[in-house]
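Person: Please work through this fold.
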Amino acid sequence: MAIILAGAIKIQEDLVRFFFRIALLFSFFYLIFITSPASAAQQTQVASDAQVVFGRFSNNVVKIQVVENSSGAKAVIGSGFFVTADGHIITNYHVISKQVHYPERYRTEFVDASGASNPVSIIKIDVINDLAIVQAKIKPAHYFKLAPVNIKQGVRLFSLGFPHDIGLTIVEGTYNGFLKYALYKKIHFTGSINPGMSGGPTITAFGNVVGVNVSSAGEQVSFLVPVDAVLKLLSSALKQPITDSKKLLEAVRSQLLLYQDSYISENIINMNDSVQLGRFRLPSKLASYFNCWADANRKEKDLFHTVNHQCSTDDYIYVSSSHRSGVIRFRHRLITTDKLNRFRFYSLYSNLFNEVYVSIHGSEEEVTKYKCETKTVDVKNISFKTTFCVRRYRKLEGLYDAIFKAASLGENNSGLETTLVLSSVSFENAVKVSKRYLEAISWKE
């Protein structure tokens, strides 16, 4: 009986050891599976998703090209996608902007899957959101049906377009919400949007258009115009298309004038958010869509020290290939020294005041040269040397760029220099905002 019992116990122990080894082996393979960069099954699934999306929706996407009439050569290439059965195509304003500015010199076409070029007409633009609608003379067999979307951060998206004119490409990435410091919404897309993909769609795996490819900051930091802006523009185009190409530039002008009213509000310069530099109290973040930075140079060996505080919006408006607009930025700079006498400090201070803080792009064909006025003014017991410079837009009547600079006077070893840059504003607003900006500065005795 004891022998039988001992044998049974041994068999039981052997079974326990057997199942324990099986469990260890299973755990080992499971660990390898879950800690590998991507399992074969996962890789197959990812490849399959991209392949399926491309297969289902690539026919909706076309190449857009702007052609120079005299040579017949393409000057610009981008992407676009059909959104109605009547041949309406969405693209970016910046893709077709050459024809908007020079309708006598350029024409726009879309290139179909066979490589054939087809003429299109520009019927609506939204220069603020960098969108345009062109219409082809064909009835497409495939197109995206636009609708509002509501997705969460991290959702996988697919961008389609023609990078560097090397053929239609699909790029994977993720949705990461909206750009924080922007007056008009842009989506942060973690994927590689390259030149030539502008105007193409970024979609979900089910073909829902989330946004339109618009720009990239590199390193898989890209931006999309939300589909809501596309829906608004399409609705307007269907109701009231622009039929005369000469009116497109007037649309740019009126939209820019209207846009400035969105950010040049009555309380744009206020002291709800201020910064203290030395004895000076100065305006800081003017609105929620401003981003501010600061730094200082305090090395012991230096002849003078500086403290900088600057704020700006992160986005801009594309007006033309050589002109960016719709930006407000400013910088305060406190300069101090305990090593320079007053004459050497004055020379240094004057040179720093004359430095160019930031340049606003714009060709001579589009903007005049700056005209400046320099004078000395007293505000709140502070004397300032000020310079106010403006330049006029040649083609867009009523719009100006302005640079306002001020430097405090009266100190032998310290001074405050500040610069405000405004673009695409009326002359009246340039004067008004510059005046308020200076009046917002105060100091402690």
Remarks:
- The first strand starts at residue 61 and ends at 68.
